[in-house]
Write a structure and sequence with these properties.
- It is built from no helices and 11 strands.
- With about 120 residues, it is mainly beta.
- The strands form 2 sheets. Strands 2, 4, 5, 6, 9, 10 and 11 form a 7-stranded mixed β-sheet that branches.
- A hairpin with a 4-residue loop joins strand 7 and strand 8 (about 75-80).
- The radius of gyration is 14 Å and the shape is elongated.
């Protein structure tokens, strides 16, 4: 069974930093794009940052210059370093990965269970 498990969320004061981690485990053949989404109460889930297997990244405009996504392909992990946090960054953060479990299988998207990030003013 393939799963993604996030860690590193919590409560932080505005201006502070947090680092989220996400580990992929199970019978995995390949991992393509990995990323982070977030969902605040009453709002739609939105893309925060994404990273390809080769390391190309993209960010939501609202986090550019403050957040950095990275990955360790050998460890099957993706990270999100969040600096200069603002109250509007408060949300549940979800890890996602495009993965296949067999060489002949089309990759599909997997999601973690989410981790809460709360930024106080």
């Amino acid at each position: 069974q393939v799963q993604l498990v996030e860690s590193g969320g919590g409560l932080v004061q505005g201006g502070g930093s947090l680092r989220l981690s996400c580990a992929a485990s199970g019978s995995i053949f390949s991992i393509n794009t990995m990323g982070w989404y977030r969902q605040a109460p009453g709002q739609q889930r939105e893309l925060v940052a994404g990273i390809t297997f080769g390391g190309s990244t993209n960010y939501a405009d609202s986090v550019k210059g403050r957040f950095t996504i990275s990955r360790d392909n050998a460890k099957k992990m993706v990270y999100l370093q969040m600096n200069s946090l603002k109250p509007e960054d408060t949300a549940v953060y979800y890890c996602t990965a495009l993965m296949s479990t067999r060489y002949y299988e089309t990759a599909r998207e997997y999601w973690g269970q989410g981790t809460q990030v709360t930024v106080s003013s």
